Amino acid sequence: MAEKNIDIKGYDVAAFLAHQSIEKLLKAILAFQGKKIPKIHYLDELIKNFDVSEEVSNDINEIVNDYTVSRYPDVSDKVPYEAYNEEISKNRVEKVKKIFNILEDQYLKEFENQNDQM
Q1: Is 79 left (phi over 0), alpha (psi -120 to 50) or beta?
Q2: In the prediction, which pLDDT does 118 show?
């Protein structure tokens, strides 16, 4: 959906959905591990539960504010649709895809462990 929003120039929505997809992935892995799922939207806090490279941490830090800017437009001097453009949104989506690929093995392992226990 993030990519589709880029196609229709919904750049702020694309960045928001990219953020949401990583947030949900991280929380799903925590859930499969039987850990408490924090009721937060801060990716930089969620990622602390994982052993990831500095590059992934840096990518997460770049994405972390997209939720806040989209949900709370008063935190910025611009409204969300003015704060994002095609380049920024494509960058966010590419970073999220990369993070998904890196965490995919961990997610699949936890998913399989959960299914084996059923």
Answers
A1: beta
A2: 63
